[in-house]
Design a protein that fits this description.
The protein has helices at residues 19-30, 35-52, 58-73, 78-94, 97-114, 123-143, 148-161, 171-185, 193-209, 213-240, 249-260, 263-271, 281-300, 317-321, 323-380, 411-417, 421-425, 445-448, 473-476. It has 512 residues and is an all-alpha fold. The radius of gyration is 47 Å and the shape is extended. It starts with 18 loop residues before the first helix and ends in a 36-residue tail after the last helix.
């Protein structure tokens, strides 16, 4: 048989990675242990991959959030953690609305699933993540002008993912949302009454339906107790007829919400409905009683409280009309700036003049001190071999030039020509008559004043510095102020040597 050469099979082109494979590789890189790999993959997901997607399966979004969760898990240092949290929450506003809702719901699902695995060291950064995402949800509502349908849809996603999810062991997410809800929504208040009913109304339903007593207590203490407290303060302020201070904006805003939303009626309806849990009725009827009493107190005092929503005025139409005014105002500012510069120059001249006056004052003060020192020295009289006048300026004495070589015979001449400070200051010792040098010695109290111990000390306010007083470690030893005296060395007491005890040992004779 004839063997035929078989041709090799045709080579197929290499398969391109599918979208699912790219997604899996990105998720693995998000959970990497190296920060550079995590940052690069997160940048790719949030800036390139995620905005290009029109629809993402729920399972893929949950897997993506699993990688993002471990990306934040590995993040260290508070500044880096806060930057990463801000980046993740900012993506909520940049995405289209359907994708943003899916992104937010997957975030809540991941936090509920992983909440029991978070240790206490990493808990703070996940608390911050929940707070930032809640603020981002309110930003989306505010961007939509608080439309009722949009607000109802977003609030439904929030409540279904936290309070009404029914998962056991994931209550910490709902607890933290209930604690920070008032703080985050306060930035956007006041709102219309219809919007407040959509935002705050579901909390009354949650308190009646949920079996978790801890969650009921969190909602009561962090939301409705805060509204009650501010409502009572607002009623007291209105009764006194005084206006609230500048720092009491929360009293006006939150107090008006508590007085206008008719929470007493809502709590009564929820507590009397068959869907309410029996264990929560006591708390609900207690809140009904407090809100009803607050509303009756407002009606009896004749106070009218309403929620005032500021209207936004468009500024685009006024820009063209205000252009000439802006130019004129800029010219006026330039003129004012030139006037300020001229004033500043005058002020600088005044400062220079004041500096000259201060120098003259210092010179006058030193001359007065010099006269007082001379009076004190003249009263005591000069002592031999001492300084005649303490404050007398030393006359500069120039020394004649000599040859570099020294000789033993010129030793006496050198002693005559060398000038000592005490000999120069005293007038009794005549110095050699040589020409005066051009160098002038300026008087300063710190350098030229020398006080000898045989002269009486001047007053304490004139003594600069007290040279006769002991300094340094001598003050620690308790040496009194005054002239330093040599202390006689005390003879050391010699201890007598103890005589050794010589015990007589009785010799015992061996009895034979």
């Amino acid at each position: 048989m004839v063997t035929r050469n078989q041709l090799p099979p045709p080579q197929q082109p290499p398969l391109l990675p599918t979208e699912a494979q790219c997604c899996k590789s990105l998720i693995k890189k998000l959970a990497s242990g190296k920060q550079t790999i995590r940052d690069r993959s997160l940048r790719t997901v949030l800036r390139a991959w995620l905005p290009d997607q029109t629809t993402i399966p729920d399972e893929s979004m949950k897997n993506l959030w699993q990688g993002i969760f471990y990306c934040l898990w590995h993040a260290d240092k508070p500044l880096y953690q806060s930057d990463l949290v801000n980046t993740l929450s900012a993506a909520l506003q940049s995405l289209p609305l359907p994708l943003a809702l899916q992104y937010f719901s997957a975030f809540l699902f991941t936090m509920r699933r992983e909440w029991s695995r978070i240790d206490r060291i990493r808990l703070d950064k996940f608390y911050l993540l929940i707070r930032r995402f809640l603020n981002g949800l309110f930003e989306i509502m505010d961007g939509g002008a608080w439309d009722l349908e949009l607000t109802r849809r977003l609030v439904g996603v929030l409540f279904d993912g936290t309070f009404l999810c029914g998962d056991s062991g994931s209550g910490g997410v709902g607890y933290h949302v209930a604690c920070v809800f008032v703080e985050e929504v306060r930035r956007f208040l006041p709102l219309r009454k219809e919007v407040l009913e959509v935002v705050l109304g579901p909390f009354v339903v949650v308190m009646g339906v949920v079996d978790d007593k801890v969650l009921v207590g969190k909602i009561k203490s962090c939301l409705f107790d805060v509204l009650l407290r501010n409502g009572k303060r607002l009623v007291d302020v209105k009764k006194c007829g005084s206006e609230c201070e500048e720092g009491d904006d929360d009293v006006v805003v939150l107090g008006s919400v508590a007085l206008c939303m008719e929470f007493g009626k809502r709590f009564y309806e929820m507590g009397s409905s068959p869907d309410c849990c029996q264990g929560n009725r006591k708390v609900i009827f207690a809140l009904h009683k407090e809100f009803l009493q607050l509303e009756k107190e407002m009606l009896s005092s004749g106070i009218e409280v309403s929620i005032v929503v500021p209207e936004l005025v468009p500024m685009c139409s006024e820009v063209a009309a205000d252009e000439p005014k802006a130019v004129s105002e800029s010219k006026k500012k330039m003129k004012k700036g030139l006037k300020k510069c001229s004033k500043s120059k005058k002020d600088a001249d005044v400062v220079v003049n004041h500096g000259k006056k201060d120098e003259a004052f210092d010179e006058a003060m030193t001359s007065d001190l010099r006269q007082e020192f001379e009076k004190i020295a003249s009263e005591t009289g000069p002592v031999e071999d001492e300084v005649a006048s303490v404050c007398e300026e030393a006359e500069p004495v120039s020394v004649a030039k000599k040859s570099k070589k020294r000789k033993r015979g010129n030793k006496g001449v050198e002693q005559g020509t060398t000038v000592d400070r005490d000999a120069a200051e005293s007038s009794s010792l005549p110095g050699p008559s040589v020409e005066k040098s051009t160098k002038r010695v300026r008087f300063s109290l710190e350098n030229n004043v020398v006080w000898k111990p045989h002269y009486p000390l001047p007053p304490r306010d004139l003594r600069l510095p007290p040279s006769a007083t002991p300094r340094g470690s001598a003050m620690k030893k308790g040496i009194p102020a005054g002239p330093v005296r040599e202390l006689s060395c005390q003879s050391k007491k010699t201890k007598k040597k103890a005589k050794p005890n010589t015990r007589r040992v009785k010799t015992i004779k061996n009895l034979k």
